[in-house]
Amino acid sequence: MSAPVKKNDRLTVYIEDLTHDGNGVAKVEGYPLFIQGALPNETAQIHVLKTLKNYGFAKAVEIIKPSPDRVDAPCDYFQQCGGCQLQHLSYEGQLKWKENMVRNVMQRIGKINAPVLPVKGMKEPWHYRNKAQIPFSANEAGQAIAGFYKTKTHSIVDMERCLIQTGEADAILAGLKKELAAMGILPYNELSHEGMLRHVVIRTARATGEVMVVLVTKKKKFPQKEAAVAIIQKLLPNVTSIMQNINSNKTNVIFGDETVNLWGKDVIIDTIGDVRFEISARSFYQVNPEQTEVLYKQALDYADLQGDERVIDAYCGIGTISLFLAQKAKTVMGVEIVPQAIEDAKRNAALNGFTNTYFEAGPAEEVIPRWYREGKEADVLVVDPPRKGCDEALLNTILEQRPKRVVYVSCNPATLARDLRILEDGGYQTQEIQPVDMFPHSTHCEAVAWLELI
Ligand code: SAH
């Protein structure tokens, strides 16, 4: 097919769909154009930016007939920052779009006919992120700037506030930036590999109010540390932990290997439902704990535990779902590939006094078949794999061992649909799919699927 449009053409199109990047999709004689700034059901005048053989890119220059769900994006940085893709769509519009997206993907990719329920969204879809990781640098005049990386670049856009992170993060961002020069702390320069302060990470425990601030520095020797601690305490009187992480490498990775305590405790404690979690500077933890509770309650509901079930939690991370399930199950065995996460899971199980959990580090697709060979069977299997979905060997193990119920927590509807098809072909029936909005204003959507052996 040759492109029916060329670069710099202007034309008027009707927008049919929205991509994962938040771009509108229109078709010109069957040729798809991905259009920045346009929403489904809009008519827009567009400017063609680039054409390839099978598709092209354009940007909306005028919205001729706006979508009824269009709103003004409330954030000043929406156009430059890649963090949110859907702020120009009302929150109700976002939830409707996500519900349809999940339903369409289920049918198109998996031919899955189970009901897809309306997305469980947030009452207040702002300031939900409990972790902010803010890069610091200097502008041409040598003043400290801090904010976010401009979409697809490594240049920092200076920012005052972010509408999805917490007020604590905003306070540190603005306050530290102002005080840095007076303290004699040079922000890091990525090109010259000079300067001291690379990133500031702020972690907030929503349930307990504890706050950790981590200063990521180029060197361990940090003569201004007392001054920095004093400023942080002044900016955030409720801070409970101030840590320094040392990253001397020329790298995009935020953290280095060494973390030292500057003041207060080494960890903060948060709770999800009735389960307590210890969070250290670098430990993995869900970024939207309010919706995590919604998601995992749903998983627990679908697992329908009566107290005598043996449960396996595959891809268990720090054991968040496992410990939720352990409240109702006879035993829970969790497996996860990152050994550090398994250490966290064990610590959190002990912190909560669970004695019916067992955790092991390793690939789920190898560890679970071995458990079965050793006679460690499961009545209910929960999986929460990364975006690429379940490993085929794990799906085969499920089909061979036939646990009566499978609960599939997914961050990628496309691989969920693919895997549900495999499980349905092998004797399971999907009963229901509940999408949950973990990341308002982004195009991501999590979903929990409930399957029964038939
Ligand atoms: N349920 C977890 C998060 C799951 S995210 C929680 O609630 O915290 C997916 C997890 O799968 C990640 O922690 C990742 O490290 C892990 N993972 C990736 N590949 C894996 C594999 N082959 N076997 C086991 N775990 C794996």
Automatic annotation (TrEMBL):
<protein>
    <submittedName>
        <fullName>23S rRNA (Uracil(1939)-C(5))-methyltransferase RlmD</fullName>
        <ecNumber>2.1.1.190</ecNumber>
    </submittedName>
</protein>
<dbReference type="InterPro" id="IPR012340">
    <property type="entry name" value="NA-bd_OB-fold"/>
</dbReference>
<comment type="similarity">
    <text>Belongs to the class I-like SAM-binding methyltransferase superfamily. RNA M5U methyltransferase family.</text>
</comment>
<feature type="binding site">
    <location>
        <position position="315"/>
    </location>
    <ligand>
        <name>S-adenosyl-L-methionine</name>
    </ligand>
</feature>
<dbReference type="InterPro" id="IPR002792">
    <property type="entry name" value="TRAM_dom"/>
</dbReference>
<dbReference type="Pfam" id="PF01938">
    <property type="entry name" value="TRAM"/>
</dbReference>
<keyword id="KW-0489">Methyltransferase</keyword>
<feature type="active site" description="Nucleophile">
    <location>
        <position position="411"/>
    </location>
</feature>
<feature type="binding site">
    <location>
        <position position="286"/>
    </location>
    <ligand>
        <name>S-adenosyl-L-methionine</name>
    </ligand>
</feature>
<feature type="binding site">
    <location>
        <position position="336"/>
    </location>
    <ligand>
        <name>S-adenosyl-L-methionine</name>
    </ligand>
</feature>
<dbReference type="Pfam" id="PF05958">
    <property type="entry name" value="tRNA_U5-meth_tr"/>
</dbReference>
<keyword id="KW-0949">S-adenosyl-L-methionine</keyword>
<dbReference type="InterPro" id="IPR030390">
    <property type="entry name" value="MeTrfase_TrmA_AS"/>
</dbReference>
<dbReference type="InterPro" id="IPR029063">
    <property type="entry name" value="SAM-dependent_MTases_sf"/>
</dbReference>
<keyword id="KW-0808">Transferase</keyword>
<feature type="active site">
    <location>
        <position position="411"/>
    </location>
</feature>
<dbReference type="GO" id="GO:0032259">
    <property type="term" value="P:methylation"/>
</dbReference>
<dbReference type="GO" id="GO:0008168">
    <property type="term" value="F:methyltransferase activity"/>
</dbReference>
<feature type="domain" description="TRAM">
    <location>
        <begin position="4"/>
        <end position="62"/>
    </location>
</feature>
<dbReference type="InterPro" id="IPR010280">
    <property type="entry name" value="U5_MeTrfase_fam"/>
</dbReference>
<feature type="binding site">
    <location>
        <position position="384"/>
    </location>
    <ligand>
        <name>S-adenosyl-L-methionine</name>
    </ligand>
</feature>
